[in-house]
Amino acid sequence: MASVVFDGASRIYPGTTAPAVDKLNLTVNDGEFLVLVGPSGCGKSTSLRMLAGLEEIDGGRILIGDRDVTNVAPKDRDIAMVFQSYALYPHMTVAENMGFALKIAGTPKEERDRRVLEAAKLLDLEPYLERKPKALSGGQRQRVAMGRAIVREPQVFLMDEPLSNLDAKLRVATRTQIAALQRRLGITTVYVTHDQVEAMTMGDRVAVLKDGLLQQVDTPRNLYDNPANAFVAGFIGSPAMNLLIAPVEGGKAKLGDLAIDVPAAAGSSVTVGVRPEGFTPSSKGFHVLVEVVEELGSDAFVYGKPADASVKFANASDEGAQVIVRWDPKNPPKPGDTITVEAVKGAVHLFNSTTGERI
Ligand SMILES: Nc1ncnc2c1ncn2[C@@H]1O[C@H](COP(=O)(O)OP(=O)(O)OP(=O)(O)O)[C@@H](O)[C@H]1O
Ligand SMILES: [Mg+2]
């Protein structure tokens, strides 16, 4: 086992000017499950490929344990990678697929068989060892791909969206299995996904990337409770946090009749962040014109527009933006109604409306 350190690591692809990964500083602790998450193109796969040695590094260093592997060949890094397209060899059985890397490495047959059987037991694949991949379900194939990585007993697992070929239900089941398996094996794991729910449910810690820049790395709980900036606030959580630009008058941000204390340095406007569950019905406060009500049984979510024109959405490019309020499912409002809400104590996040940084 080993820790992983990205020490100011950058990747600038030939023919481009903006770094795909920009001076990444990130430490993954020994035995930790770290998830890299962010929107498409933010540099997740590039970061993972840099760690695997599949991508050149244009600045900084990468360490595995206390070894600087920046210039070490992929095969000598003692890592195993599971990709999105897990491409099993169709002409080989499950057992042969799982043992193939060991065979290439010259591991004696007896030890190979032992390690394959051990991994198959862990992954509930024992009954399928003699089958060919085409006779397996999607989830079973995915487990064979995991098995191929496990039998190598690497210092570090790298996984790049390994569940994206599975249907939604199987993905939920498999993510629980992978997280449990990793905890049992205790092998340091870097896991890439664009799905923030997957990130939050699987990771010991989650690193959020945007445009090649690390935004924040923390436990799921802390990311949710204390987002470092408006981007992380809006990206983590489903339904998303409401991010509204409110005018500031006399030290108070005004969301309709709701007045929120802000520090003097905030300027003439501020981005107010409140999660859907952070609003509660009130006789006086922020008025929302109801457009849609989503009833989920356990919860209802009310979608609408601010009734007060001085309140704008922080993401101005998002034309369809709506305020989202969690509501008592027994008593939902109707489209066309106006609801009045206030913010629950402690539920307000404030961000600089220019830089997005937390205030
Ligand atoms: N070989 C390449 N040459 C030039 N640019 C590249 C290359 N590979 C990736 N990029 C660019 O680098 C940036 C980061 O790409 P990367 O594949 O790391 O994103 P990602 O976060 O994994 O996205 P996704 O969620 O879509 O897989 C993107 O802007 C992409 O267009
Ligand atoms: Mg990718």
Blueprint of the fold:
Layout: E1 4-11, E2 21-28, E3 33-37, H1 44-52, E4 59-64, E5 67-68, E6 79-82, H2 94-104, H3 109-122, H4 138-150, E7 156-160, H5 168-185, E8 188-193, H6 196-202, E9 205-210, E10 213-218, H7 220-225, H8 230-235, E11 242-249, E12 252-255, E13 258-261, E14 269-274, E15 279-295, E16 300-306, E17 312-313, E18 323-327, E19 338-343, E20 348-352
Parallel strand pairs: 3-8, 3-9, 6-7, 7-8
Antiparallel strand pairs: 1-2, 1-4, 4-5, 9-10, 11-12, 11-14, 11-17, 12-13, 14-20, 15-16, 15-19, 16-18
The structure holds adenosine-5'-triphosphate and magnesium ion (MG).
Adenosine-5'-triphosphate binds near residues 13, 44 and 194.
Descriptive notes:
The structure is a single chain. This protein is α+β, with helices and mostly antiparallel strands and 359 residues long. The strands form 4 sheets. A 6-stranded mixed sheet has the order 6-7-8-3-9-10, with helices on both faces. A hairpin with a 2-residue loop joins β11 and β12. The longest helix has 18 residues. The radius of gyration is 24 Å and the shape is elongated. The two termini are 39 Å apart. Magnesium ion binds next to α1.
The gist of it:
The protein is an alpha+beta fold. It is built from eight helices and 20 strands.
Measured distance between first and last alpha carbons: 39 Å
Please state the CA-atom Rg, rounded to the nearest Å. Answer: 24 Å
Largest sheet entry: 6 strands, mixed
Q: What small molecules accompany the polymer chains?
A: adenosine-5'-triphosphate, magnesium ion
Helix content: 10-25%
Structural class: alpha+beta
Provide mean pLDDT, rounded.
93
How much β-strand is present in the residues? 25-35%
* Widest sheet, order of strands: 6-7-8-3-9-10
